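INFO  loader      accepted 1 record
INFO  loader      residues=449
INFO  predictor   begin
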Amino acid sequence: MRSSFMRAPSTVLVMALTGCLGMIEGESPGGNGTPGPRPTADSPKGDPVVPPTDPGGGAPPMGGPARPPEVTKISSCQATSVDPGPVYIRRLNHREYDNTVRDLLGDTTGPSSGFPQQESGLGFANNAQALNISPALAESYLKAAESLAAAAVQDRLPQLAPCDAGKDSEESCAKRFIEAFGRRAFRHALDAEDAAILARIYADGKARGGGYKDGIRLVVEAVLQSPRFLYRVELGQPARPGEAVVALDSWEMATRLSYLLWSSMPDDALFAAAETGRLTTRAEIAAQVTRMLADKRTRAITADFHRQWLELDDLPELEKDSKLFPAWTPQLAAAAQQETAQFLDYVTWDGPGDLATMLTAPFTFVNASLAPLYGMGAVTGPGFKKVDYTPPGSARGCWATPLCWPRTRSPTRPRRSCEGSSSASNSCATTCRPRPPGWPWSPRTSAPR
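INFO  predictor   done
INFO  writer      dumping tokens
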């Protein structure tokens, strides 16, 4: 199976707060901005992308001397040529699975709560190289498919089927259901071979169960366990001779956009654009992205990105020595978690939406629990309020919140260093290079060694 490449449309980059969206897609085979050989299904998986960085891995501390001349060059995420890296076959993660069956079947039960623990790679749950299928997960998919199919046929078949089997012939209605449901579930036009397979499954289910609904139920079960449903496969448009980088087709672009911005399947508008082949121009892709950004699902997915990037779920679970940190309680940890989430949501959607504000904003959000921690007057009510706050020292913005104060695993240490290496590791889905020999600054000092 051949793999595809694509030029990431610039409008999609509005979601990449770190500017590293294209790097998340996989490894960089060629290096130095030159495309490598086209991979195949048997190509080995390489190491995660390591974006170009200064050898020292960051700026010198406040008050320290200037960088040595040999490391003053500032790198950029902007590429001078197309090198998007290989596109891996991606399994739906648990959140994507729940969202997809919600939009496909109208199910809001969150079936992934019964799945094995969500895998992650380099801090993110959508890292393709971490998303494998274990025997336990395969069994969970089987059980979920059986449960979802039964509930869909029992409770929502009139909404899912494009016809009424009581008025039309059952065979005709089954054929139309297979075509419509398969197209949406597989996120691509159903080809003749897949349609024939599902038709045979319908006939078998009807013969064994004795009715139209039994056949449809078995079709839904089969579709929900198909690799075409569980995986996002991108083959791209046919390559011309000598072409190392090819574009996605409209169906693949619709799916990539929907899972980037919504963590779910395309909606009717995206399907319509894909079916007519319109998602091959920057103008049409930009129009769809603009429309999708106005959907409330995008805001929720952005919050989920922040949650994974900054490991916000770990905050309420941290334990601190009560004698050294009497103010640190589970309630305060939960409030600090919410503070950071609300701060990032405001900066992204209601503020200027740039990284500079995220890192340097002279304000935060506090409630009655957090205000005393900042030395502020009483804040009434349970809600959070935006307040001006310029802390002492060099910390600003997100790094001035309690998020960074207690993150070390040691119960007796006040904080870990919220340096660029930690955020860069999660932001660009890679690990930072070590300081080169002879580098004059230690991460925990402000002067040369």
